[in-house]
């Protein structure tokens, strides 16, 4: 199985030659070449979604836009139909009221933040898998910690009802030495399989920071065969301002 965390970069930003319209062809070619079984997107918009559903009919997309009226950007998971059946999905807003749309913590940025859970059935083996796609706040450390605690509690609530292999991945917007990552690393039930990846955010080749992660429950982390970034670049055009992170494992 091949699973990817991909901050695709919203199309509102003024990115010059790296505007989404210029990156779309490279994205199409890369996904067709790699054929991931699961792609967890961050910063998806309705325009992204319409194009991606057209370009990739072999995937089922589920998710939610996070702003008022379900607009703006959000999280989507794409599952390859020949590999997985989607049994269900759920979304919480990282806030004191997790099921109130567009709710957020008072001290965070103006942007609501969400965590998307998707329940998958692997067709060949009959195994089930939960994937949690997360995009934490980028502005305030208090909101980042509250959002991470909310997410881990959310995972625990699912696992308490029925324990399944799970993946937590996405753009956490925090560095490896942060308290949020220490909180994740302290859990005995999951492992950061991207620990050896030095950088994931590059700002179109202008900087270097590790803020994207893939955690897996211990049972499947042991089956990982490779972890890499997609660092494709041509004439100054990248797949995004983040390197997508790709993990392969044997089920």
Q: DSSP strand (E) fraction?
A: 35-45%
Q: Helix amount, in percent?
A: 10-25%
Physical arrangement of strands within the biggest beta sheet? 3-4-2-1-14-11
Q: What is the number of independent domains? A: 1
CATH architecture: 4-Layer Sandwich
What is the approximate shape?
Answer: globular
Write the layout of secondary structure elements.
Blueprint lengths: L1 E6 L12 H15 L3 E8 H10 L3 E9 L3 E10 L3 E10 L20 E9 L5 E8 L5 H21 L4 E6 L7 H7 L4 E3 L19 E6 H4 L2 E6 L3 E2 L2 E2 L6 E5 L2
Parallel strand pairs: 1-2, 7-8
Antiparallel strand pairs: 1-14, 2-4, 3-4, 5-6, 6-7, 8-10, 9-10, 11-14, 12-13
Helix pairs in contact: 3-4
Task: Write up this protein.
This protein is α+β, with helices and mostly antiparallel strands and 251 residues long. It has a single domain, classed as Endonuclease/exonuclease/phosphatase (Deoxyribonuclease I, Chain A). 23% of the residues lie in helices and 36% in strands. The protein contains five helices and 14 strands. It has helices at residues 20-34, 46-55, 141-161, 179-185, 218-221, and strands at residues 2-7, 38-45, 59-67, 71-80, 84-93, 114-122, 128-135, 166-171, 190-192, 212-217, 224-229, 233-234, 237-238, 245-249. It has a six-stranded mixed sheet with strand order 3-4-2-1-14-11. It has a six-stranded mixed sheet with strand order 5-6-7-8-10-9. Strands 12-13 form a two-stranded antiparallel ribbon. Helix 3 runs parallel beside helix 4 (179-185). It starts with a strand and ends with a strand.
């Amino acid at each position: 199985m091949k699973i990817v965390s991909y901050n695709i970069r919203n199309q509102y930003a003024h990115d010059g030659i790296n505007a989404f319209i210029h990156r779309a062809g490279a994205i199409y070619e890369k996904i067709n070449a790699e054929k991931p079984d699961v792609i967890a997107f961050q910063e998806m918009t309705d325009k992204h979604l319409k194009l991606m559903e057209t370009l990739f009919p072999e995937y089922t997309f589920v998710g939610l836009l996070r702003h008022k009226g379900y607009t703006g950007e959000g999280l989507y998971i794409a599952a390859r139909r020949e590999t997985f059946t989607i049994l269900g999905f759920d979304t919480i807003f990282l806030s004191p009221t997790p099921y109130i749309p567009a709710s957020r913590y008072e001290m965070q940025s103006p942007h609501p933040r969400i965590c998307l859970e998707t329940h998958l059935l692997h067709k060949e083996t009959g195994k089930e898998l939960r994937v949690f796609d997360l995009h934490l706040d980028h502005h305030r450390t208090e909101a980042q910690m509250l959002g991470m605690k909310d997410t881990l509690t959310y995972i625990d609530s699912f696992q308490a009802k029925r324990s399944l292999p799970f993946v937590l991945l996405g753009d956490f917007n925090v560095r490896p030495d942060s308290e949020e990552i220490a909180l994740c690393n302290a859990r005995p039930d999951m492992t950061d399989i991207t620990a050896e990846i030095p950088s994931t955010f590059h700002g179109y080749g202008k900087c270097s920071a590790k803020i994207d992660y893939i955690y897996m429950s211990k049972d499947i982390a042991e089956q990982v065969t490779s972890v890499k970034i997609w660092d494709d670049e041509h004439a100054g055009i990248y797949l995004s301002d983040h390197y997508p992170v790709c993990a392969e494992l044997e089920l």
